[in-house]
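Cross-posted from the bioinformatics board.
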Amino acid sequence: MRRVGPLLVERRITPPRSAVIGVSALAVVIALLVAAIIFWGYGVSPWQAYAAIARGTVGSRDGINEILRRSLPLILCGVGLTLAFRAQFWNIGAEGQLLAGAVAATGVALFAPLPGPWLLLAMFAAGFLAGGAWGIVPALLRAKLHVNEVISTLMMNYIMIYIVEWLIHGPWKGATMRGFAYSDFFPAAARLPWIPGSRVHWPTLVIGVAAAVAVALILARTRLGYEIRVVGQSTDAARYAGIDFLRVIAWAMFLSGGLAALAGVGEVAGVHFRLRSPTHISMGYGYTAIIVAWLARGSPLAAVFTALLFGLIFAAGDVIKVALRMPFQITGVFNGLILFFLIGSEMLMYWRVRLAPKGERWTGRAGSSER
Amino acid sequence: MLANDRVTLELRAGEVHALLGENGAGKTTLMNILYGLYRPDSGEILIRGVPTQIHSPRDAIAHGIGMVHQHFKLVFPHTVAENVALGLKRTPFWAPIRVVERKLRELSERYGLPVDPGSRVWELSAGEQQRVEILKALYRGAEILILDEPTSVLTPQEATELFKVLLRMKAEGHVVVFITHKLGEVMEVADRVTVMRRGRAVGTVAVAGTDKAELARMMVGREVVFRLSKGKCMPGEEALLVQDLWARNDRGLHAVRGVSLRVCRGEILGIAGVAGNGQRELVETITGLRRAERGRVVVLGRDLTNRSARAVADVGVAHIPEERLRMGIVPGMAVEDNLILKRHHRPPFSWGPFLRLREVRRFAQESIVGYDIMTPAARAPAKLLSGGNIQKLILARELSGEPGLIVAAHPTYGLDVGATEQVRRYLLGGREKGVGVLLVSEDLEEIMELSDRIAVMFRGEIMGVVPAAEANLEEIGLMMAGERRLAPQP
């Protein structure tokens, strides 16, 4: 215990949920305050900027639809990442896994002669398998050869980015695209329906929320989920308990990669209707999802809500570009600031601050009686 | 947490003062305050009658207080003299090590602490490293020397040597504070003893005017049954057969060198030895956590050499691991989740790919009551539990599956008297039920009290196996030090 003026500061072993939520919210607010300095430096009044953003996002029906549309890939990637993060497997590769899903879905959409709804179903299935396979590779590398997964997942993103580039410039270059680097448009049966009056491809939303619930159930109520939690908390205890590290990590990464890939299927089938440049398909959703999962503290259900927060930031980026004539890349600054303050505030959750009781005697300088 | 509650301790010049108490009684906290590592919330320290503020170990050293921690603070690749010189003020600019070495030889001579100042620390045994720590304190002019559980790393012979050193220091007018939870050592070496219980000093008595039973009473607040009743050993089938087992340690060196052992059902085989002589690797090889390079492990009639840890556990081997916190539990997970570790994949706890949470909860309630595990809730993370309760959790889990063999590594290490007694009862209870027990422990007293037969391990080899009834402490000590070896038994 430490005494600072009239306050007592104590360390606690497990932070209560209220502290987690409170401190995280505080970190986001501070990040927005710091971002205000950037607006100010750009010659835009922060007040006006935030007012314009509020009007353009949460303040209108179109704005809300836009938030939702931007959130869809983040929900799926974020939920998938919570699964990997709970196993303490630092999957930085959601971006590549998402693109793997987009590629597989495009392949099915363009070349599989399937009737009606079967086509979309096959696209999602193929996407999931492709992303899962892409995710398993770093798991195998880690378990068999001790390759650091941060490096391998990150590097595999670039491999997938160039695979997509090669496809749209080479074999899948659309005959109808007048030499531009796009694939052909998908047939109508391979396009996801929108919520009327918006561009929100609702089947992806349904899948995302269902995935969040399913992952929550897997973690809490299945053998696999239990083993993922044990591996994540203590590899030594897992070894002692006879848990097969390779099997658990491979499953976690198969599911994590598969879910990120569903986001990629959603983007090509619900927004672009063709395969195009990786930066247009994803806009860094796979990376932002890392923050989504981190902010959700590994809870798949909370990831749905944190995904909405970052959907809001992406939507705000559009407003900033159009209404304030600032670059869209400002969203990257927002994301960076939020992640920075979140990680920085981590230790605050472990401290409890309260008023010292009046009667307590002042006993010298800040002393520590912890063991 | 309140670790020391209005403690008064008075030390006299020229005495060995034992600080006796169970683990968690606050002994180490008290000494850390004296050594300037912690600050007291209230109270004062008087040295030679003068109120003194000790803000840091540097202050403590300046006031003539030295401390030898339970875990040594030495730089392994450096020489003894370099370790002593580390952080020393006022060393001469030219050839400082030469000066330090000369003074070290002098001190070694004077106190009977033979160490070569030029040898590197990693070459030294635990006992020699301890001497370096003591010399370090003496070099800095320590008048009051605090030793935190100094015998925990020593062989009986080394402990006897240490006690001689303490007597010599006493004769030179030093004060030695000797932290321990072993009654025998208090009786042997201390002049006076202060007993601590739950952060309070229960009392200070002269050793000459007391006995073990009284001290034990003061320590736990009630009578402790010392000799657990041990029935007659009934050798039945073999629970464990180890033949010519070889295994390497993490550094790739042979740590287990041709070990052969036999544990019957209903028998406790104790493995005595100073830590680091291959016991850990032996246990890990038997329980499927380490590869055997050569040899055979047969458990309950089944050859399990180099089978997975899960296969070994499923056959009915309970493993009480040495590193409770690192291996035995998942600290961040709930007590109820920890209770099914290792059995989570089998009925009744799982059904296909699903966990049966109701069964998990029922089992948790049963275990918490049955094993008297003190926990705020079944859902509370296991890291909130005290050491004794963590061990009870592990026992509840490991003994619940009706094991045929229990492999227990240092099962009472660091536990208080109450919990120790309980753990030993469970091991003996298993033995009564016909379970074979392989008990690895550094605590010779424990080995002597519980085992039917005692095997001594030194540098990866079994130096001999003797029936506990015929064993004497001195002979076992000699085998632990590698000085004696018995002809191998069939």
